Amino acid sequence: MLDTGRPHARLWRHRSAPPVRFVDRVVIVALSAVGVAAVVRLLDWWFRAGFANQPVLFIALSLAFWYGVIRLVLGWVNYLALARAPHRPAPAGLRVAIFTTSSPGEPLAMFERTLAACAGIRYPHTTYLLDDTGDPRFRDAATRHGAVWLELAGLPGAKAGKINRALALTREDFILVLDPDHVPFPEFLDRVLGWFDDPAIGYVQVSQAYYNQRRSFTSAAAAEQTYAFYGPGLMGLGGHGAALAIGANCTFRRAALESVGGHGVGLAEDLVTAIRLHAAGWRSVYVPEIVSRGLVPEDLASYNRQQLKWSRGVYEVLFSEFPRAFARLSWRQRLAYAAIGTYYLCGMTTALYVTFPYLYLWLGAQPANMPFEDFVAHLLPVGLAGLALYLFTQRWLCDPEAERGLHWRGFLLKLATWPVYVAGTVLGVLRYDVPYRPTAKSAVQTSFLRLAWPHLLLLAALAVTIARVVPARLLRGTDDLSAEAVWGMLAFALLPAAASATGVVAAWQARKVRQGQAWDELDVSRLGGPA
Question: Looking at the DSSP assignment, which residues form a beta bridge with residue 126?
Fold first, then answer.
């Protein structure tokens, strides 16, 4: 159960990333230059004659490997444009609406906290509950907390469909889209509305932060996956003129939304909306401040469904929206959306990494004839440069005291999720529709084997390989495979196996959900204020 007393009370304070100093930029440029030099050295070594042992497998290995390296370099390019938007005081007299949506099955108690917190936002506004639950208790809750209840049942387009219908029923000039699991602080609107003095600004996005990350391994890992993105990641995109609209905590100018036909619809409706607004010439701002806290999935089944929705959704943007918008985007925005649209190819590359060691250890099929020690010697400088930049840029995390670290849970769970990402990629390529379902706000109990079986299969494959193949190669003197290659391939097999072990842990926890809800003891009267 969440403890809103110490030490967790600090979560409910307004927090902000620091400005970017000149000396910081010098360090980022220097580390990036070292990293690029290491990448060039690695590139020169990788494609030397004689390394390609089996051409087809070598091409597959090269595509997977250099996909990861290129994404690393793109991260460095993003850091070069880090920008901290200075605060602009909110002018008086703006007409502001808050839209929060409800769907069947979502917990009423969570809405009670969110609507009460919306009522506590200091800047004058009107909160609208866009409701399609068919449950009169939601209307009563809206009335009790001073919100306007709009019954919007049966509309196409899920969340985005309700937003667009509400736009037609309301008149406010600025709309904050707030997911119902996010609890806003009293100063929320004061921290974003000042930017709309510039008539070219179409939307202002703030950070997303969470308050249930300590409730399970899955929630801790899911939160860790977001820390760098909502800190230096989006600050860099903002500096490149490509700050994204995220599904929650984004304040839109009504005129901007109306200029592109309303909020985008789809599994990645926020990304659709962002690219359309950028293509239409609207600018965006990212404010790296925590002025609300929400929920991440607490169980592995909910996390997997969310990742499938996201991985399928980005391909809608890559295949449909991106080609149409391409000519009207800046080159930096093109690079940003191309990188985002291909992010979930990591599932395909991980699948290849999982496969290669077993092809070699069982069948002797070797993609490349590279000395393992030389490979490590050329890759290590690239990895060290990447790690140095990752750690250095953590000074721009929105809550560094709580978020700083190696984020190993998030990394391993992402690796373990590769089957979900592969499924999302295949469904995206085939243009197969996936129904839009809101991410579960409460932990869902699921059988262990239903979630763990792919991870258990991989762990079993590793165990069988070690028990049978390695002794056959090493102890019996089989000479068709070198000992160095065997140990190198085993090392490659161990990393995805370690990731699968975290999947097993998460699946085991999902057998029995934690009692109580994250919001049970949340006191909205204690929200916000300086850290």
Answer: 97
Lookup result for tokens 């440069």: 385
Strands 201-206 and 283-287: parallel
Nearest to 507 by CA among 439, 442, 453, 457: 453
Residue 455 per-residue DSSP state: H
pLDDT at 119 over 80: yes
Q: Cβ neighbours of residue 349 under 8 Å, at least 6 residues apart?
A: 63, 64, 65, 67, 68
CA torsion through residues 519, 523, 524, 526, sign: negative
Q: pTM for the complete prediction?
A: 0.94
Distance separating alpha carbons of residues 115 and 141, to the nearest angstrom:
8
Work out whether strand 250-253 and strand 174-177 pair parallel, antiparallel, or are unpaired. antiparallel
Residue 478: which pLDDT band, with cuts at 50, 70 and 90? Answer: low
Q: Can you tell me the distance from the alpha carbon of 314 to that of 157, in angstroms, rounded to the nearest whole number?
A: 16
**How many whole angstroms separate alpha carbon 368 and alpha carbon 370?**
6
pLDDT (tens digit per residue) in 250-307? 999 999 999 999 999 999 999 999 999 999 999 999 999 999 999 999 999 999 999 9
Cβ-Cβ contacts under 8 Å for 359 (sequence gap 6 or more): 57, 365, 366
Residue 138 CA to residue 109 CA, distance in Å, equals: 10
User: Could you tell me whether strands 183-184 and 283-287 are parallel, antiparallel, or unpaired per DSSP bridges?
Assistant: unpaired
How many helices and strands in the chain, by DSSP H and E?
20, 11
Q: Residues of 14-32 as b/e, b for ≥16 C-beta within 10 angstroms?
A: bbbbeebeeebeeebeebb
CA dist., res. 35 & res. 388, Å (int): 10
Question: What fold characterizes domain 96-298?
Answer: Spore Coat Polysaccharide Biosynthesis Protein SpsA; Chain A (3.90.550)
Tell which residue, 424, 449, 247, has the closest CA to residue 351. Answer: 424
Distance (Å, whole) CA 36 – CA 385: 9
Neighbours of 346 (CB within 10 A): 21
The CA–CA distances, whole Å, from 504 to 148, 191, 383, 457, 496 equal 45, 42, 28, 11, 12
Burial class (CB in 10 A: 0-12, 13-18, 19+), 349: buried
Q: Are 283 and 177 in contact (CB under 8 A)?
A: no
The percent of residues above 90 in pLDDT, for the chain, comes to 83
**Does a cis peptide bond (omega within 30 degrees of 0) precede residue 454?**
no
Q: Are 301 and 417 in contact (CB under 8 A)?
A: no
Residue 89 class from Cβ within 10 Å (0-12 exposed, 13-18 middle, 19+ buried)? exposed
> Which residue, 124, 271, 254, 264, is CA-closest to 201?
254
- Residues 200-226: pLDDT tens digits? 999 999 999 999 999 999 999 999 999
Instruction: Name residue 284's beta-bridge partners.
Output: 203
